Amino acid sequence: MDEIILRTVVLQFDGRVVEIFRAPSSELVRRHHVAQLKEPQVKEPNRKGRSMVTVAGVSFGVDADELAQLKPLLDKIGEAVRIAKDQPLR
Description:
Elements: E1 2-5, E2 9-13, E3 17-22, E4 29-33, E5 41-42, E6 51-55, E7 58-62, H1 64-86
Antiparallel strand pairs: 1-2, 2-3, 3-4, 5-6, 6-7
């Protein structure tokens, strides 16, 4: 299980299921299978250096130091999404 703890969000990924835990003031947990997802998106940093990241329909801002930690996990999730989309229907 891959897990990353950022300032305002925690992401877990077991190879098939993405779980996103947010601060208590918003929706608490999102859980999705990669076959139901779009690939994660990262927008260019704003003038303050924060990038908007969207994973499993959840968008959140990250600073450059967090993005460096998050990028490998986003790549794994993106690859799993692509593989799931390429699977033949049964």
